[in-house]
Amino acid sequence: MPLRAKITNPAIAGRVQMSSSPSRQDLSRTEAAEVIKELPGDEPEDVLFNTLFGVRTIELNRPKTLHSLNGSMIRKIVPRLQEWAKSDMANVIIIKGSGAKAFCAGGDVKHLAEENLKGWEGQRNSTDYFALEYKLDHLIATYKKPYVAFMDGITMGGGVGLSIHAPFRIATERTVFAMPETSIGFFPDVGASFFLPRMSGGVGTYLALTSEKLKGVNAFYAGIATHYIHSTSLPALEHRLAELRFKDYDSKHTRLTLIDSTIEEFCTGLPHDEPMLIQGKLRDAIDRCFTKTNVPDLIAALKAEEDEEVKAWAEKTIATLYQKSPTSIYVTLRQMQLGRTWSIKDTFHREHQMADKFMRHPDFTEGVSALLIRKDNRPVWQRASLDDVKPEDNISEPFFQVEGANRLQLLNETDYTQYPHSEFGLPRESDVQELVMRTPKSRKAIVTQFIKERKGKQGVKEVVAEILRRRTTVTPDNKAVWAFAEGVQESGAQATVGQTSGDGAATEELSTGEVAIGEEASGGSEAAATGEESTGEEGNGEDASLKKPSSE
């Protein structure tokens, strides 16, 4: 989601399903050979650039808005990235936020909603802003040089787009990750169509639909971050990365491997008082419910949970889903299903068209107005409730119709269908599946092998053990066997979204975490939709953290 776009023209929003506008052929812009550069009136110091030996640093510098990303910032960042890509002196790119509160908190959705009330020309410029943001996100996702994101503090919406596609994503004890868009009548964008469906089981869909937050080490356990480091170590890590020297003929993979081992030097342990939240019974329930292919079945699955602790979580989750825009819920669920087959280029092309349609749909403006303008937190959605939507209404379909005249022109043509750098994070479910199916071993032996292969990387033991608990059974001779449960979608060794739990024999701790819409939140960024505190001029919001698991 874009942040504080500099929009000068109006946009339209009405109490109709989707407002009319001039033909998209008329609205399309010629973007061939586009050069992105600063414009008169752009803020002079909203992004700071620094050089330290081989390191080039991008420092987001709008602390009053929790580093909301706007057009001015993008028009500074893109040319620098393009310049550094050609420089033999630039070895490592680091992006971070100034101060301790946030990396980048999400879009200034309040400003967008206000503009959307003024007429179709503003909507046109809003869509153009999304195009600018997605071009930057795709550039980062396909960048030719090592790129490291310090996800220190609030990392939501547009901030996720600046970090999630990087080969190295560092979480700290201050990290707060969320994609809160369904709370405001939008959809998870900035490439969420690519990264969320590729999370195992139903976790990505769960995060997309509920706006659930992952804090600190749990962003690492979930695979959102590749490393977990205490925030006090970040300055030393930055200096250490600056000392690295590469040979001219070193491949990108060789350079990434050296950077990975350097970051690991600063990974000095995981907090013992913050257990993995999405595990055990909660994880099994998420996979049972959030792999359903339609909303009524998903709600029914939540209602069918019988375990007392899981039932309490399920009831809270149902209440959360009923607070969201019904249109957003239906579109987002469909997005999670389609996105697992989209390439990285497809993702940004399709999200650009979806964003254009959402800017013409009344729910976005209404959701933001209720949260940040009227501040009554009582949005009147176009569909009053999930119960008012019938399957034959097919309300998500218009958002996925492709309009060729409005096709996004990216800054390069690089494409892929799986992240090329996933080896630097924690083992994926597909990695564990491949080993289990290749060589019969005990669960303990499999965990030991992964720890050895990943050179003692922290978090490997916990994550692999949880995958084995869910997805394997044990034979009489103590060998792990992969469980192809009903509803699981496999593709060779690569497991994708739609996986369900295995035997679920082990008893684990359960998270009763819930997401809360901060009633007092009045800042303009996406973080307000999750109740995260804003230090901006518009006011503050409640902090609604995930509750810790209760022991059984």
TrEMBL record:
SUPFAM superfamilies per record: ClpP/crotonase (SSF52096)
Species of origin: Rhynchosporium graminicola
E.C. number: 3.1.2.4
GO CC aspect terms: mitochondrion
Keywords from the named record: Hydrolase, Mitochondrion
Region (Disordered): 492-552
Name assigned to this protein: 3-hydroxyisobutyryl-CoA hydrolase
One Gene Ontology MF term: 3-hydroxyisobutyryl-CoA hydrolase activity
Class of this enzyme: hydrolase
Pfam families membership: ECH_2
Positions of the Enoyl-CoA hydratase/isomerase domain: 55-393
GO biological process per UniProt: L-valine catabolic process
